[in-house]
Amino acid sequence: MNVSHDLGTWVAAFLTLCILSFVYKDNPFYKFAEYLFVGVSAGYFIVLNYWTVIYSNLLDPLRTAFGGHVEGGPFRIEQGDYRALLVIPGLLGVLLFTRLSRRTAWVSRWALAVIIGVYAGLKTTGFAQGDLVAQVQASLQPLWVPGHLWTSVNAIVFTVGLLTSLLYFFYSREHKGGLGLATRVGVLFLMVSFGAAYGYTVMSRVSLLIGRFQFLFSDWLHLIR
Amino acid sequence: MNLSALESLDRRWIFLGMALLVAGPLLFPVGLPLEVSKPTQEYYDAIAAVPDGSPVLVACDYDPGNRPEMVPMTKTTLRQLFDKHCKPIVLCLWNGGPGLVDQTLEEVADEYRARGVDLVSGRDYENLGFKSGNEAVMVLMGQGITNAFPRDQRDRETRTLPVMKGIRDYSSFPLLVSVSGGYPGTKEWVQQVNSRFHLPMVSAATAVSAPDYYPYLQSGQLRGMLGGMAGAAEYEKLMHEKGPATRGMDAQSLAHFFVAACILLGNAVQWSRGKRGRA
């Protein structure tokens, strides 16, 4: 058998088998691979974030702004140069480390407040523009399109599904009578959507297994091309 | 029929059955038929409609955990773009992804170089690399791509690269391709970029997240979509490729039959138990 001669491939294959061994039962090989992954990931992420974010988006621009090479001094906002102002987010970032001491931990709330405020603003406006308005607009469909029978059927099914699913989450009145019937139809639509989501989840998980088997059979054992 | 013996079935038999059903078709392909779905066709058409030679923003937001689904989609997308002489500007917002994304991009570029096509990093394509910050990076890119990514994956100053000449912000691109493994991904690109900057976009998503993105497809916010390995295989068929997604679809189909059979059998066991309980 013409197996791989690459050391990296052998290490990857060994770790793959270590992880897959968990389906038989928990064992030291699985634990070894798990701890190795956690340790390597932590080190990798620290180095990556330093060089791609802290260095290139903070330290390097600050060094240029305060290094005495910029004509007109570091603060040249009127000329569109905001690099020196990165001192402020830099300081806020440093404040986060005050959480390491219980006495000074309260100071980090200033930085956290900025982070939460910025992300809440971004998420809210993004959701309003991308989901709320656009989706409500897309839900307003003509129920009858002359000459296009299936388009009309689709629109009717869509509208019935939308309204009955929304009614299911209307809790201000007991679900009986006409409302009860509508909510039962809504449940059917919800069940179909849960089933579709579950089917897609199965596909995703099986894909991961296929990917590992393809690696073992192709890259490691060279059984398939 | 007495199904009580199945109640105490060791779950490892199910794992073994699944392993055999996945391994078998990979070693001995069956070649089950594959039809191209409408969202996949639209994805292909949206990229085909991009003017030849244009820069196209490709957000590869995934890590090695999504490799079997995401890498085939990325490779086929890059091939379609390179065939049109487009200039892919690639970036990654997942901290586990930049190495894999760079490897994928270079593998596709090497295929073209091996065929004699003169592709140069920084001139014909670009990997901006990773940036932490999720939605904040997306918004920052709207004020200038090079502001958000002053240095690229190879630590080159992005402002000086020939491929970045004429690229200012989102208005410089005719299309955004979001290859999305989860958060941040297609949903965030739709919310922060498509809706604010009106940049047309398509999505290649994992099967887990695909159902969440169908509303965007229905509303026209997405021009096309690939959903999971099935979407990747359909796309390979459109591109006349026989890649890893196509080769994995036999195993995928058989595994789905097996899961469906397990669900039916599990329900039958529960039904027979309930019947015994009532007797």
List keywords for this structure.
heterodimer; A: 225 residues; mainly alpha; 2 domains; 6 helices; B: 279 residues; alpha/beta; Rossmann fold; six-stranded parallel beta sheet; 11 helices; 6 strands; 52% helix; 12% strand; elongated
Topology:
The complex is a heterodimer of chains A (225) and B (279).
Chain A: H1 7-20, H2 28-66, H3 87-95, H4 108-139, H5 149-168, H6 177-220
Helix pairs in contact in A: 1-2, 1-6, 3-4, 5-6
Chain B: H1 4-7, H2 11-27, H3 38-48, E1 55-61, H4 67-83, E2 87-92, H5 98-114, E3 126-130, H6 135-141, H7 145-148, E4 176-180, H8 186-197, E5 201-205, H9 210-219, E6 222-227, H10 228-238, H11 244-278
Parallel strand pairs in B: 1-2, 1-4, 2-3, 4-5, 5-6
Helix pairs in contact in B: 2-11, 3-10, 4-5, 4-10, 10-11
Question: How would you concisely characterize the structure shown here?
Answer:
Helices cover 70% and strands 0% of the residues of chain A.
Could you explain the architecture of this structure?
The complex is a heterodimer of chains A (225) and B (279). Chain A has 6 helices and no strands. Chain A is mainly alpha-helical and 225 residues long. Chain A folds into 2 domains: 1-81; 141-225. The relative contact order of chain A is 0.08. Chain B is an alpha/beta fold. Chain B folds into 2 domains: 4-28 and 254-278, no CATH class; 38-241, 3-Layer(aba) Sandwich (Rossmann fold). In chain B, β4 (176-180), α8 and β5 form a beta-alpha-beta unit.
